[in-house]
Every structure is written in C-alpha cells, then in structure tokens.
Amino acid sequence: MSFQPIRSTDDLPPSLSSHESLFLDFKSQQDPAPSFEMAKDVAAFANAQGGTILVGAVEDRERKHLARYNPLPEPLAAKIVHGYEQSVRDRCRPTPILEIKILSRDGGAVVAVNVWPFPGQPVGARYEKEAFMFPLRSGAETVYLQPDQLPMLTLPTIRRVAILLDSIPTTQRDQITLLTPNPAGSRFAARRVQFSSSLEEVVMRNTVLFLDLKHRSTICVPASAIDHIWGNDGKWFVSMSMHLDQLISGVLVGTPT
C-alpha cells in the first residue's frame, strides 16, 4: 500500500471496513484555530510516506475502524482549512507540500488534508518560541525522532529512493527489473525481483531488500547505491552502481519459483 491522496468524495474510505494506518488519520472534530497539533500531524506524514488527515471521520477506538462520517458545516470546514494552512506556514520548517480538499458528504463537509512525503530533510514542528519537535508517522501512531535519528533523515538521496520505491503500486512490486553493472563485459545484468522493504528500513538503515523468486534468494542492497527508479507500462526498473556479486544474498525457504 502507498499514499493515495483523497481529492473527491469517491476517494473517501468506506465506513466500517477502513482503519487508521500509516497513511490515514481520522478526526471527528478539529478546533479551527492554528495550533502545534495541526503542524505536528502534517509534519509526521511529511517525514514518513505521506498521508491524509480526514476531519469529520469518527473512529471506533474499540474496533479500530472508521465507524461513520460526522460531516461539518461548510463554514467550519473552511476555517479548519485556514487553520491547517496557517499552522503549516507558521510552525513547520521546512514547509511541507500539502493539498487540502473540502468534500461534500451527507449534507455537510469532510476536510481531507493530503500531505506529500518530504524528500529533502526532516520537517520540524515548532512547539514554542524556537523549540522544534520532529514527529514521524509510524503505523497508526505518531512518534518523535530522537536526536541520534535525525541524521538519517537529512540524506535527501536516500529519502528520494525510499519515496520512489514506495510509490510503486503494491500490485506491481513483483514487476521490477534490477539492473546492475555486469563484470563480464556487457553493459548491465538484469534480474526480475520483488521489492519488500518498508520506508523505515530504507531511510533509517540504508537497506533495500528485493526477493529474487527465480533464484530463491534475497538481495540486500544499500539504498545509497541505487541511481535511478522509473516505470513504464506497469513495469518498473531500478538501476544501481554495484555488481550482483557484491551483494549479500540469503536462501528463501518455501517460495514458489
């Protein structure tokens, strides 16, 4: 699963079968006044894989799913939009990319705050005066980065690799061709692989795991060695600067060929 912005009523997740996740945060109500909480929630998604804050969505905390929608009066929805925009402008450094939509629902409005992952560096949320905190969306919760973790999010090349890999649709992650230099003399070696890492593994550990189903093995790649990622007609290509014989592999057990 990857971040899919919510831009229309048809994009709204269905009640009873939807859950808060790495990409979704439900809020039944929201004080429209600009606040640290607004900035913190946006920064947390920007520092992870992106996501959407849905205001006007009620979570059943016992069953952990979207119980129902609680549509807001449109004037209140407009004030909430302004509150998020001002909170991000005044409290987030650097400024993340967001797109906010007011969506009609059951005679009222739901606010969808879409936040894109920020590739350049960690986004801080100003708590008071010049004190900043660095939130990160982890699962369905928000955690705060510790000082010794911040350097890993200051490597834009690795963040870029993580974001691009995560943008590959789940149904196409086994349609990847890994291209590596070929020591035998031809320009490159190609191998069909499946991407199987999380953004946290890529960013915080500089590690990308691919599954090579044909050879029943895993391929462990440094994210910093990946040069290019691109897609064409549902197929994806990843090129890197290391030879396959420089990579660490392990045997897969019980994986179909």
CATH topology of the largest domain: Methyltransferase, Cobalt-precorrin-4 Transmethylase, Domain 2
**Overall radius of gyration:** 21 Å
Which percent band covers the strand fraction?
Answer: 35-45%
Q: Please identify the oligomeric state.
A: single chain
Structural class: alpha+beta
Mean pLDDT: 89
Please provide the ordered H/E string of secondary-structure elements: EHEEEHEEEEEEEHEEHEEEEE
Instruction: Tell me the number of helical segments per DSSP (H or I, 4 or more residues long).
Output: 4
| Overall geometry | globular
N- to C-terminal distance: 24 Å
Describe the fold and architecture.
- The chain has 257 residues and is an alpha+beta fold.
- The strands form five sheets. The protein has a seven-stranded mixed sheet with strand order 16-17-12-13-14-15-18.
- The chain has four helices and 18 strands.
- It folds into two domains: 9-150, Methyltransferase, Cobalt-precorrin-4 Transmethylase, Domain 2, CATH 3.30.950; 157-251.
- Helix 1 packs across helix 2 (74-91).
- The protein is 19% helix and 36% strand.
